[in-house]
Amino acid sequence: MTENPRAPRITATSRRNMLFGTAAAGAALFAAGCTSNESNDGKEDEAGSANVADDKPGKKVTIGFAGPQADHGWLNAITTQAKNRAKKYKDVTLESTEGSNDNAQQIGQVETLINKKVDVLVILPADGKALTQVGLKAMRAGIPVVNLDRIFDSQQAYRCWIGGDNYGMGLNAGHYIGEQLKDKKNAKVVELAGIDNLELTRQRSKGFDDALKNYPNIKKVARQSAEFTVESGQAKMAQLLRAQTKFDALWNHDDDQGVGAERAIKQAGRDEFLMVGGAGSKRVMEAIKKDDGVIKATVLYPPTMAASAIDLARALGQGKGVSGMAEFEIPASLTLYSAVVTKENVDEYLPIGFT
């Protein structure tokens, strides 16, 4: 799944407040600025378009894209989002690698893109720490790097980081569950986490626990860590169900492993609790809309960040900014908001649900 150990958090209250929008929000570049720093005598033209990237063809930009193997629904959506956004621009050529979970192989793929002298690199590293040196190599070669989600160990290895908010994901899941159970005495919740040796899992659990502190009537009675796979989700959920004969809510960190969790729930014939998913798969959103099972919500970790990364890379390559900010340069770090998708707002988010 995704890893983001250091990302700063924002406190936006809705999807419309996110720094970067989604594919459903339109194809325009979003809230980040990058200009050539030319003042034009301190004035802009009527539309301020001289230094602002837009949909109109401009300077041709070759963007290199390197990510992990698309062996997970979310990662597959990342690759799809990047490719589809690049196709939107007539002035963008995307050089995409096959994707690999092998660090040495991914390093080699990035080095090939560096040798091709692409204008900008977008990198979602399989392991941020392991790929830091190749990020540094690109930056030293004069190729700006947009670091996507899993962060490098050094800020010198990237020009801009953009990714999701793991702590906020857990926090919002906890607050949603808390509000549903706030009037229930001695409410019990369980947690089906991801891979425990990943910082992202620890951040999600911490956010969840911190949120529950606001609801003294709720106690987390059990936690199991799975591996972001269907098989592990089913096995670990079955263990939770055997150990806990009755509880009121379940938070599952990942919608892909949630497929297995739902199988275990159905096999056990349990339905006394509500379930909140994580990441925002289309399958889960459709279940939320249908509203005939335990799934009531999912907390987003938007793969649309990859489309926004292409927007950023294009702006960097053209030396232009993006409308909506006063700053001359794009921010060093951009954190997407982890919105909670429920029956009330699911139609808004369905277009960005991943398969």
Automatic annotation (TrEMBL):
SUPFAM superfamilies reported in the protein's UniProt record: Periplasmic binding protein-like I
InterPro entries in the cross-refs: Peripla_BP_I, SBP_2_dom, TAT_signal
UniProt subcellular location: Cell envelope
Superkingdom of the organism of origin: Bacteria
Protein keywords: Signal
Xref: Pfam families: Peripla_BP_4
Transmembrane segments: none
Residue span of region Disordered: 37-58
Chief location category: other
Signal peptide residues on this chain, from the entry's feature table: none
Chain ranges of the Periplasmic binding protein domain: 63-320
Signal listed as a keyword: yes
UniProt xrefs under PANTHER family: D-ALLOSE-BINDING PERIPLASMIC PROTEIN-RELATED
Family (UniProt): Belongs to the bacterial solute-binding protein 2 family.
Protein name per UniProt: Substrate-binding domain-containing protein
